[in-house]
Amino acid sequence: MIVERKKLNFWERLYIPAVIGGFKVTARHFIKSVFKRQPVTMQYPEERWVVPEGYRGAPYLVKDQEGNTKCVSCQLCEFVCPPKAIKIIPPGPAGQLADRPNAEKMPAEFEINMLRCIFCGYCQEVCPEEAIFLQKDWSHVGTNRAEMIYNKEKLLSLGGTHAGTQKWKHKLEEAKEQENFPVKP
Amino acid sequence: MFDNITNWIDGLTAMQQFVLFSGVKIFAVFGVLMTCVAYAVWVERKVAAAIQDRVGPNRAGPFGLLQPACDGIKAFLKEDFTPDHVRKAYFWIAPAIALIPALLTVAVIPFGSNLGAQKMVIADLNVGILYTFGIVSLGVYGIVLAGYAANSKYPFIGGIRSSAQMVSYELAMGMSVIPLFLWVGDLNLSQLVISQQGFVGWLPDALGSVRLPNWLVFQSPMLALSFFIFLVAAFAETNRTPFDLPEAEQELAGGYNIEYSSIKFALFFMGEYAAMITASAMMVTLFFGGWTLPWFGLDQPATSIPGGLLHIGIFFVKVVAFVFTIVWVRWMWPRFRYDQLMDLGWRRFIPLALVNIVVTALWLWIRSRS
After folding, report:
1. How confident is the model at residue B246 (pLDDT cuts 50, 70, 90)?
2. Closest CA to B96 of B257, B256, B271, B276
C-alpha cells in the first residue's frame, strides 16, 4: 500500500503549527493535572477501586441472620473447585454438632488457599446452602504462603452475614407445624 | 574566630589566595551543579507526569523531594555488571568521558557578579566561548566510545547516530554565536554579560515605561536568529527530544547505554542532565543577560554580599526557566527521523548561520561608516 504524503505548505514547513499544537496539548494536560488537580492515576494503597456489583472477588463463608455457620460440610465445593483450592475436614461421626438446630453438621475445618483460588465462582454456584459467596475483596496480602491459606474462622469473619433463606430453620418450623396440624378423625 | 580567618587570608600571597578561592568556588559550583542535576531529574519526572495526567514521584519525602537521594543510593548499591562481550577498557572509561565535559564547561560561565572581592566565575578566560566549544565537542566521545565498547548492535547504532548528529549540529552552534561576538567585540563571557546592561535602545520613546531589557537576544533580529539556531543546536547537542536519536528508547531499546548498569549508567544520566544545565547556563549568559536584570540597578556588579547573592539567585532562576523549557519540549514533539535531522542540520541551519554572520558583518560595517 502506498500512502499519499500530503504536501506541506510553507507555513507548515516552518514548523510553527507543530510548535503551537504541541504547546496547546501539553499545556492543557499540565494545567489539568497541576492546577485543577485531576490526574487520572489513583494513589493505590490509600485509594482503592470500588468494584462493580457481581464482581468475582475472594470466596468467603457467610453466617445466617442468627450468626450460625451456614455450611453443612457437604464438600460439593471442594469437589467442584478446579484448582483444588478448597479443603474441608468434616466433623466425622463423633464430631461437633452444627451450631443451629436441625442442620446435620458443620465443617470441623474449612480452608481456602487464596494462592490457588482462581475466583471462578463454581463453589458459590454449586453450594446448596448459600453458604459461600464470591465477595468484593480483590487484594490479598501475606508475608508467607501459610498466611495465604484462609481457615474457617478467618473466612467466616471476612464473609459476614448473608440475608438469605434460613432453610433448616424453616424446615424445623414446618415440622413443628405438622405436629400441631389439626388432624380430624 | 571570623577575624582570625580574615587575618589568615590577608596574610596569604596573591597566588595562595587565588588557589584558595578558586578551590572554594570549584567545590561550591560542583556541589550546586550536582544537586541541580539530581533535581533536574526530579523536575523532569514531575513535569512529565503532569503532562501525562499522572502524579509523579510523591512517596519519598514531601512532593517526592527525596527521590533523587533514593535514586542515587540505588544507583550506587546496584550490581555493577560488566557483560562478557564488551571492550573492557573503553567500557570503563566511556561514562567518565561522557560526564567530564559537561562539568568542565561550567568553569567559564559567570554565575554572579561578585561576592566581596571575588568575581563569581571560576576561570575568567579571555577566550571563554572558544574554550566552551572545545570542551563541548569532547562530549561526543563518551557516547561514541560507549557505543563502540558495548560491542553489540543497538548501542553501536546509538553511538553512530550520536556522532553524526553532534558533529553536524556543533557546526551550526559554533557559527550561530559568531554574530554575537562580532556585535560585542569580546570573547570573554564576563564582558559579554556587562554589555547586556540596561534597556534596548531601538524601542520608540512613545512606549514610555514599556521597555525591553538590553539582552543580546533583543538587541537585533540577527541576534534573535542566532539564539534560535543556538537553541535548536543545544537541543541536538544535549540529546534532548526532538533530537534524542542516540538513545531513542523505542527503536534502540535505550541506545548507547544499554549495556551499562548501576553507577556507570547513572554517570551517563548525570552527564546528560549536566549538559542540559550547562547548555541552559550558556544560553542565559550569551543571550539573556546572565546575572543581570535591568530593574532596580541589578545590572551593576554587586557591592555587598547580599547583592552578590541576589545576582547568583537571578542567574539561577533564569537557568531553571530554561531547564524547565527544555524538559517541557520533550513532551511537545515526536522525535525527528534520522534523515530529517541531518537535513535540518546541514541544509538549513548551517547556511542560515553563515548568512547570519554575513548579514551581521555587513550591518556592522554600514553602521561604522555612517
Report:
1. low
2. B271
A26 touches chain B (CB under 8 A): yes
Does a cis peptide bond (omega within 30 degrees of 0) precede residue B242? yes
A75 in the same domain as A147 = yes
Total number of domains constituting chain A: 2
Q: Does A33 touch chain B (CB under 8 A)?
A: yes
> Residue A92 is which amino acid?
G
The torsion angle over the Cα atoms of residues B225, B353, B180 and B222, rounded to 10 degrees, is -40
B27 touches chain A (CB under 8 A): no
Smallest Cβ–Cβ distance between A34 and the set B50, B331, B332 belongs to B50
* A64 and A34 co-located in one domain: no
- Residue B355 is predicted with a pLDDT of 93
Q: Which residue segment(s) compose the domain that A88 sits in?
A: 59-164
> Across the interface, do A39 and B47 touch by the CB < 8 Å criterion?
no
Contacts of B333 in chain A (CB under 8 A): 18, 22
Give the per-residue pLDDT at A122. 93
A44 is a domain residue: no
> Of the candidates A19, A22, A32, which has its C-beta nearest B53's C-beta?
A32
Instruction: Find the CATH number of the domain harbouring A100.
Output: 3.30.70.3270
The verdict on A63 and A134 lying in the same domain is yes
CB contact under 8 A, B55 and A32: no
| A26 → closest Cβ in B49, B55, B331 | B331
Q: Is A177 exposed, middle or buried (0-12, 13-18, 19+ CB in 10 A)?
A: exposed
Q: Are residues A30 and A114 in the same domain?
A: no
Do A24 and A104 lie in one domain? The reply is: no
The set of cell numbers assigned to B4 is 582570625
For the cut 80, the answer to whether the pLDDT of residue B209 exceeds it is no
Q: Can you tell me the mean pLDDT for B238-265?
A: 76
Same domain, A94 and A63: yes
User: Is A96 domain-assigned?
Assistant: yes
Chain A segment 129-168 residues within 8 A of B by beta carbon are none
3-state helix, strand and coil shares in percent for chain A, rounded to the nearest 5: 30, 10, 60
Helix (H, G, I), strand (E, B) or coil at B213: strand
pLDDT classification of B7: cutoffs 50, 70, 90: confident
**A156 in a structural domain:** yes
> Which residues of chain B are within 8 Å of residue A40 when distances are taken between CB atoms?
53-54
Indicate if A23 and A112 belong to the same structural domain: no
Q: Do A18 and B49 make contact, defined as CB atoms within 8 angstroms? A: no
- If you measure CA to CA, which chain A residue comes closest to B51? A30
Q: Is A18 part of the contact surface with chain B (CB cutoff 8 Å)?
A: yes
How far, in Å, CA of B186 to CA of A12, rounded?
A: 38
**Measured between CA atoms, how close is B51 to chain A, in angstroms?**
5
Q: What is the ipTM of this complex?
A: 0.74
Q: Is the pLDDT of residue A76 over 90?
A: yes
Whether A50 is covered by a domain: the verdict is: no
What is the maximum alpha-carbon separation in chain B?
72
A16 and A106 housed in the same domain: no
Q: Each residue of B273-283: pLDDT tens digit?
A: 888 898 898 88
pLDDT for the residue A184: 67
